[in-house]
Here is the input.
Amino acid sequence: MDLSFGAENEAFRQTVRAFLDEHWKPVRGPELAAYVTAFRLKATEAGYLNRSIPKRYGGSEQAPDVLKAQVIRDEFGRARAPMEPPGVGTMMLVPTLLERGEEWQKARFVPPTVAGDVQWAQGYSEPGSGSDLASVRTRGVLDGDRWVISGQKMWSSGADRAHYMFALIRTEPDAPKHEGISYLLIDLKQPGITIRPLRQMTGGSEFCEVFFDDATTPADWIVGQRGQGWNVSRSTLKHERASIGNADRSEELVARLVELARETTRFGRPAIEDREIRQDLAALEGWALAHKYSAYRQFSLAADGREAGLVGLLMKLMVTDIGHEAARIAQELIADDAMIQPAPAGTRGRGREKWLDQIMGSLGVSIAGGASNIQRNIIAERGLGLPRDTTGAEA
Ligand SMILES: Cc1cc2nc3c(=O)[nH]c(=O)nc-3n(C[C@H](O)[C@H](O)[C@H](O)COP(=O)(O)OP(=O)(O)OC[C@H]3O[C@@H](n4cnc5c(N)ncnc54)[C@H](O)[C@@H]3O)c2cc1C
Here is the structure.
């Protein structure tokens, strides 16, 4: 496997480095937010951020080049410089609008989302409609120039902080279930909407229940045609699964676990000397490396203009399984101490709050963006060509 980027891209790397040396000086305190916004603007003007977005929508409109994109990710990561604003707006909605939206929708919603000025929530899941997403029941009725919406969305990450939601709404109740859904954009700041954050076992509250009680949205805030929402949502989920499948974190996770094992005592000696722990760590490192090389494989296929196929489908499952196993080993090391919050001074396992989040959060990753069983179904059916699952859940 040739892992070099070639002379042209190495020269490009030096240019990116010089840009970062000149423009990215980490600052702290109240001026940070404005500094980051100004930096992102400069990085976009230089062609390093928002590369696939046309200039007229606030992007840098660069020709697709996976090698250059990777060089930029590497160098920004090395300098700990911020890339595009995180969130479902930039990650999922923007690519979907660029692919499927009307011109006015792109012009209105893409620039402020890319700039980080507006936040979005994803309104797909409902009580009883998660894996079987096509069974959503939240209703939209066209009444003159607006949709009137009633029902409930569930697990909507960050909805309490978001300005808008992109949602799957049943607008054609008499059509077959996949053909009766529309993809609507909704202003969350209106009287007919109640947003209730849900308390999680980590103590945080990242998701919300969102209730629609005759809420409204303009008739043309629809992406694609009436009844095409299922199809439009497939492009959004494709982007979600692809970003969850990123390999960058796996090696870092193993390195942090090794550090935890060094500083933790188990049966009266450093846990890193324990045979069982060493074996677990070595096996996990094997998985992390397999993940990294699968990412390289996916990357070289993309550089060649080829589809990732089975490798691409495996990536989210690998993140999930590695995260679970890391959480299990951390739990083994920290034991009951993990449950005491905040950590008493001088007890084992420094930075345990992060590990507690890893332990509990790894359960969430196996569900978010499509549960692991569903992902296995997709791998079986689309990757391996096995017969379809007949239980009714949608991949
Ligand atoms: C961290 C996180 C963030 C999320 N953010 C959002 C968000 O912003 N917006 C949003 O709309 N939703 C969000 N969700 C919800 C998520 O999309 C759903 O939880 C997910 O699709 C699963 O649906 P469910 O919870 O109803 O579980 P169910 O579909 O009821 O599944 C329960 C279990 O049954 C299994 N199962 C179901 N069907 C099958 C089958 N056919 N074959 C085998 N096994 C099956 C599943 O694998 C799972 O283990 C989020 C979830 C998490 C954990």
Summary: Strands lie at 120-123, 139-143, 146-157, 164-170, 181-187, 193-197, 207-218, 222-223, 265-266, 269-270. The longest strand covers residues 146-157. The mean pLDDT is 89.
